Amino acid sequence: MKFKELIQQRYSVRSYKNQEVEKDKLIQILEAGQMAPSAVNSQPWHFIVVQETNNHRKFSEIYHRDWFNEAPVYIVICGDHSQSWKRNEDQKDHCDIDAAIAIDHMTLQATELGLGTCWVCNFHVQNCIDFFQLPDSIEPIAILSLGYPSDKGSLQKKRKPLNEIVHWESF
Ligand SMILES: Cc1cc2nc3c(=O)[nH]c(=O)nc-3n(C[C@H](O)[C@H](O)[C@H](O)COP(=O)(O)O)c2cc1C
């Protein structure tokens, strides 16, 4: 798939088929995350894959939506604040930025493989930390639901026009 087509095809999938995701496809998606660039190449991320029925069921306490429960796989993307780069001038922590790039790589790879994803950040953070017993420096940044879409989605993207977001030479 050409890049332009790929970014058009990706959309937030909130309806999934009851169909398993093949292991080799899952690995390709995780590898796409692994290949993402990061500040000073710190790679401050961990990807927790949740598929087992028991974990899956309990996971609904982390983000409770009917469509979310349909997804056969979740990937919890965690940032490691002990590894991420802090800019000298103002100590800005680049953990979220790095994690976001890895997540975007994964969503695009999934699309190319005919799979659908949805970013979820509006989850119960403390429930997630408790569920995985995450150490102090590890923050769950986002959850990706993953599976075969059971809807078509719209290719019509609601986006601000370019002239509202692009500034040539000055703001
Ligand atoms: C950082 C981030 C957080 C998001 N959190 C949620 C969420 O908690 N729940 C949800 O249903 N969608 C969530 N989304 C999906 C957005 O609503 C969606 O990307 C946006 O409406 C654009 O639609 P599209 O992805 O179909 O192009 C999130 C997206 C991003 C990038």
CATH architectural category: 3-Layer(aba) Sandwich
Alpha carbon gap, first and last residue? 35 Å
Q: Let me know the largest β-sheet.
A: 4 strands, antiparallel
Average of the residue pLDDT scores: 96
CATH class: Alpha Beta
CATH topology: NADH Oxidase
Strand order in the sheet with the most strands: 1-2-4-3
> How many domains make up the 3D coordinates?
1
Using the alpha-carbon principal axes, give the shape.
globular
Low-confidence stretches: none
What is the secondary structure topology, with strand pairs?
Elements: H1 3-9, H2 23-34, E1 45-50, H3 53-58, H4 66-70, E2 73-80, H5 95-112, E3 116-120, H6 125-132, E4 138-147, H7 162-165
Antiparallel strand pairs: 1-2, 2-4, 3-4
Helix pairs in contact: 2-5
List keywords for this structure.
4 strands, about 35% helix, about 170 residues, 4-stranded antiparallel sheet, alpha+beta, NADH Oxidase, globular, binds flavin mononucleotide
Question: What is the gist of this entry?
Answer:
This protein is of the alpha+beta class and 171 residues long. It is built from seven helices and four strands, in the order H-H-E-H-H-E-H-E-H-E-H.
Description:
- This protein has 171 residues and is α+β, with helices and mostly antiparallel strands.
- It has a single domain (3-165), classed as 3-Layer(aba) Sandwich (NADH Oxidase).
- The protein has seven helices and four strands; from the N terminus they run ααβααβαβαβα.
- The mean pLDDT is 96.
- Bound molecules: flavin mononucleotide.
- Flavin mononucleotide binds next to β3.
